[in-house]
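Appendix B, record 7
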Amino acid sequence: MNRQEVYEKVRKHLLTQNHRSLNIKGCAYRGENGDKCAIGALIPDESYYGGLEGLGVAHASVLGATGLEIEDQTDVEYLTSLQVIHDMAPVEDWEDELDALIGGPSL
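Structure tokens (predicted):
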């Protein structure tokens, strides 16, 4: 999946869900109601396990669970930017924040 495909998948997911994925501890790859965060949307159900919760996006277990081909640090930074939008930006700003990330090298 290249960067544009990642962007499109995450954008569609977040703007459709239109709220954060949360569990009792805060933002979560998989929320209590089956919600998914930006990176959680990239993790296939068969690759998800509860031990991913609490690990940062750059953790090898999380990156491996996505199945994405990470070529360099800029790919990790891009995924981190997607996660920060989910975790920190007001939901009403998600569309503009996501649109600012378009472009760049493939994942």
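Remarks on this record: The radius of gyration is 13 Å. The chain has a mean pLDDT of 92.
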